[in-house]
Amino acid sequence: MMQGEGELNHLERPSPLNEREKVLIQDSWAKVYENCEDAGVAILLRLFVNFPSSKQYFSDFKHVEEPEELERSVQFRKHARRVMNGINTLVESLDNSDKVASVLKLVGKAHALRHKVEPVYFKFLSGVILEVLGEAFPEVVTADVAAAWTKLLATLCCSINAVYEELGWTSLSTSTG
């Protein structure tokens, strides 16, 4: 097994967000969500540039090479909006752990069963989200805000991973250990 492989399966669940962290996330997200589609497009573009293998899961645009062409794609923009709306639901529901768990379970099941997405891509996406938000909103994403988002996204990855494990997900990269 290569270094780093399988580490996603052994992430420790972070402690729950405290009230201050929830407020930091919600306040920063309000500013990001004002430009929902543009932020979503920037996040997905960065994911595809940094992790080109992630495009394999998108039949509508997996063969599109040029970022400019992706930006113009109606399907691409639609998926970017869907990602942002999903994040928005989580952020709005931070005080309702049952709803957060329910949303993450639905997302995990859909991506495992229907889309067959390797769970490591959620870790990649989390890093990209932090990177893009920090660059696009430097005045909003302070060190404390970034730390709160890191904790939220780690929780998301752990929750999605748990759903995959519940479903008995196996992959070539993690089943040969």
Automatic annotation (TrEMBL):
Entry coiled-coil feature ranges: none
The protein's superkingdom reads Eukaryota
Domain annotation Globin: ranges: 16-165
Q: Which Gene3D superfamilies match?
A: Globins (1.10.490.10)
The record's catalysed reaction(s) read:
2 superoxide + 2 H(+) = H2O2 + O2; Fe(II)-heme b-[protein] + nitric oxide + O2 = Fe(III)-heme b-[protein] + nitrate; Fe(III)-heme b-[protein] + nitric oxide + H2O = Fe(II)-heme b-[protein] + nitrite + 2 H(+); H2O2 + AH2 = A + 2 H2O
A single Pfam family it belongs to is Globin
Q: What is its EC number?
A: 1.15.1.1
Please give one Gene Ontology molecular function term for this protein. Answer: superoxide dismutase activity
Q: Known InterPro entries for this protein?
A: Globin (IPR000971), Globin-like_sf (IPR009050), Globin/Proto (IPR012292), Globin_lamprey/hagfish (IPR013314)
Alphabetically sorted, this entry's keywords are:
Heme, Iron, Metal-binding, Oxygen transport, Transport
Residue stretches spanning the membrane: none
Q: Which family does it belong to?
A: Belongs to the globin family.
**Record's protein name:** superoxide dismutase
Species name for this entry?
A: Sparus aurata
